[in-house]
Write a structure and sequence with these properties.
The structure is a single chain. The protein has 269 residues and is of the alpha+beta class. The chain has one domain (3-268): VTC, catalytic tunnel domain (mRNA Triphosphatase Cet1, Chain A), CATH 3.20.100.30. The chain is built from 7 helices and 11 strands. It has an 8-stranded antiparallel beta barrel, surrounded by 4 helices.
Length: 269
């Protein structure tokens, strides 16, 4: 997934496990299980993200303030092998639309680039112009924010996608955990993590263009209520609640906990 993707819309829901199992059955006629999850007993694969932010938590504040145009910076990885690439990702929100820019990077190059070294084409796992542009954009934003590692977020993802393309996608994220991580630590091991959403599942409906009729039916049949489920932001709040230690900087994070708004988007009507 190199370069900037087509406009995507995302709807998020927090649901119990028993409902997630029923929704899985509903999806079978419309989507197919992701190839990675298909090989696993729980139909899921691990996702790890190292979130970067400025010293005053600019991207965190943008989310809790509800800024209509905002972005997050993260380094995503799926396994700990030294030869496995990691992915630099910029996730932008412009009004209700989501855009994601992503490039695969050689793992060994990450610490030097995050220390300020100018990125080079040799840092890319796949040598193509889109990835090179994405890499330079990511590093430019890191430098502008003076961004540094803040939190490691991990979970198990069950992903369903439309056959033959990625225009429609449904994911269910379980066992979402977060921990403070002030260094470039690209390993699955977490230090004293908190559980962000308890035993509940984060369901996301993702699509480009028109809201599919069968998705509208899914929402109606199961009585789903859209809400906020920001893993990075909610994770920081949970860490603060447990430790009562300042998370850079020492601000009142409780006051900024996003309210879960039960709302139905205009395009779903």
């Amino acid at each position: 997934m190199a370069g900037l993707q087509t406009q995507r819309l995302e709807l998020k829901y927090i649901i119990p496990e028993d409902l997630a199992v029923r929704i899985r059955d509903f999806l079978l006629p419309f989507l197919e299980i992701d190839a990675f999850g298909a090989t696993q007993p729980d139909m899921s694969y691990p996702v790890h993200s190292l979130y970067l932010d400025s010293p005053d938590l600019h991207t965190y504040r943008s989310t809790i303030n509800g800024d209509r145009n905002r972005y997050k910076l993260r380094i995503r990885f799926y396994e700990g092998r030294p030869q496995a690439p990691v992915y630099f990702e910029i996730k932008r929100r412009e009004d209700n639309a989501i855009y994601k820019q992503r490039c695969a990077v050689v793992r060994q190059a990450v610490p030097e680039m995050m220390a300020g070294r100018i990125p080079d084409r040799r840092d890319l796992a796949d040598n193509n112009p889109d990835d090179e542009r994405s890499l330079h954009t990511f590093c430019r934003l890191v430098n502008q924010l003076q961004a540094r590692p803040i939190a490691h977020v991990a979970y198990r993802r069950e992903a369903w996608l439309s056959r033959g393309n990625n225009r429609t996608r449904v994911t269910m994220d379980r066992r979402v955990q977060s921990c403070r991580e002030p260094s470039i630590h690209l390993d699955a091991e977490m230090t004293n993590p908190v559980t962000v959403f308890g035993d509940e599942v984060v369901l996301e409906l993702k699509f480009t263009g028109r809201f599919p009729n069968w998705m509208r039916e899914l929402v109606q049949v199961f009585g789903l209520k859209q809400c906020s489920a920001a893993k990075y932001v909610d994770g920081i709040v949970r860490i603060k609640e447990r430790t009562d230690e300042p998370v850079m900087p020492a601000i009142d994070l409780h006051r900024h906990l996003p309210k879960r708004r039960n709302r139905q988007p205009a395009w779903a009507g």
